Amino acid sequence: MSRTTVYVVTKNGDLDSYAEVRNGTRSGPLTWKILAEKYLGMKEGFRIVYDDEAAERLWALKDDPRISVCDYAVLLSTFDRFICPREHFAHLADQYDQWAKEHDDPGNFGAMGDVVRRIAADPAEHVGIAYQITSTSENLWSVPDGEGDERPYNINADADNQIADTKGHFFFDPSDHPAKRAEKGGAA
User: Fold this and answer.
1) 106 lies in which domain range?
2) Residue at 184 is within a domain
3) Which pTM does this prediction carry?
4) Alpha-carbon span 165 to 161, nearest angstrom
């Protein structure tokens, strides 16, 4: 069975595995199904996992001012190379809680608020949270070290690592919600 791996970003920038949540399908694909049905009117939302055009429309919701704050946070959490910085842990946890309230079957995100709060309370003072949404996808948080082995992704060293062929990462910022961007006069 697939799993979702929760990573913490350490003070030195390395990503370390923190927890695993069973059944990664209940993190990514179920979330995408829910959002595809809600915002795109898809009657068979699971189609999103094999329909590239539909998937592109779903990913574009990150720039759609109609998306609710909690749906925005959950959608971005499923994106490759998502990192939530420590200053936004409480907001992220609250949005996961809101997601759980709004959906009969919230999938794994229904319990993720508690995971985020545990990380926030950890005395190690982790500086960020990241996910590998489903173990059936490539683990983007493990990179080749150039000598035939793997090592943890490091946010300070690997944004443009040519050996690892990484495309960088992005930091979650609730103020970047498309409706807030539109209010500021920026592109939604």
Assistant:
1) 3-178
2) no
3) 0.89
4) 6
